[in-house]
Amino acid sequence: MVTSPVKPFALELSGQGVSVAMLEALAGEVFAQVGCTPPPAADLRAALEKATAGSTFGGGARCDLQFRARNHALEVLVSANGGRIWQTSCAIP
Questions:
Q1: Is the Cα dihedral 40, 71, 65, 83 positive or negative?
Q2: How far, rounded to the nearest angstrom, does the alpha carbon of residue 85 sit from its chain's CA centroid?
Q3: Orientation angle between helical segments 41-51 and 20-34, nearest 10 degrees
Q4: SS3 content of the chain, % helix, strand, coil (to 5)
């Protein structure tokens, strides 16, 4: 059995004013390109809002949005300041 290679795509955003709408639109395009239906839009929005809400201990805020295509599935990970907030996957046809 041959497995497909991992194809990661990630955004690392820091500072204030990160646009949740822009990240949602980008994620929507990725979901559409790989055929992920239905996309986990509501859960993703909540995770992005939490990740971009602010910083911890007065430091700079950081939001990471990662996509990985592996073994006919799209994995999506949202983290903030080094901590995982949300993760999901969907099948790629």
A1: positive
A2: 10
A3: 140
A4: 30, 35, 35
In the chain, % of residues over pLDDT 70: 82
**What's the distance, Cα to Cα, between the start and end of the chain in Å?**
18
Q: Report the candidate in 63, 62, 53 with the shortest Cα–Cα distance to residue 23.
A: 63
Q: Which amino acid is at 41?
A: A
pLDDT above 90 as % of the chain: 17
Q: State the residue for tokens 């939001």.
A: 63
Give pTM, 2 decimals: 0.78
In angstroms, the CA 9 to CA 30 distance is: 10
Which residue did the predictor score with more confidence, 68 or 18?
68
- As beta bridge partners, residue 75 has 68, 89
